[in-house]
Amino acid sequence: MRFQVVPAAYVLLVRGAEVLLQLRQNTGYRDGHWAAAAAGHVEAGESVLAAAVREAEEEIGVVPTELVPLTTMHRTHDNGQPIDERVDFFFTCRTWTGEPRLLETAKAADLRWCPLDALPDPVVPHERFVLDGLHAGDLPAITTFGFGS
């Protein structure tokens, strides 16, 4: 059987030196952690760009007018579970229509603009890696996370 991965799209809304984050709750994954304001799985038959736009509309009520690829992350939890083998597509978005607001209140407790140089704690670890690289300006186009050295 071939190796399979679960694709996801992340939209990092950026305003100056701040990024919009949500506080996860009731999801079963990293609840109590801060995370990208808009992110989710790519659906069957959907492009990653369409998924990014859909997630931004569904989760925070905005329509990105420009998505800029930031990095693609191949990551693993290294536990042999197919659901934990991922490819994440991260985009920055500096222009959008609509006012960001929390729409999925069952899945997120808060929505907040956070300075990239003073992120809240804790942030979902693989997302923290990307946010730190965004702040430093040295994030490669392809990254990996969770693999042994």
How would you explain this protein's 3D organization?
By secondary structure, this protein is of the alpha+beta class. It is 17% helix and 39% strand. The chain has helices at residues 48-60, 125-136; strands spanning 6-15, 18-24, 34-36, 38-41, 63-64, 68-76, 85-93, 96-97, 108-115, 142-145. Strands 1, 2, 3, 4, 6, 7, 9 and 10 form an eight-stranded mixed sheet that branches. A hairpin with an 8-residue loop joins strand 6 and strand 7. The longest helix is centred in the middle third of the chain and has 13 residues, at 48-60. The protein is globular and about 45 Å long.
How many separate helices? 2
Approximately what portion of the residues adopt beta-strand conformation? 35-45%
Cα(first) to Cα(last) distance is: 25 Å
Largest β sheet strand count, sense and barrel closure: 8 strands, mixed
- In terms of quaternary structure, the protein is single chain
Q: What's the rounded overall pLDDT mean?
A: 94
Q: In one word, what is the shape?
A: globular
What is the element string, with H for helices and E for strands?
A: EEEEHEEEEEHE
Backbone structural class: alpha+beta
Gyration radius over CA: 15 Å
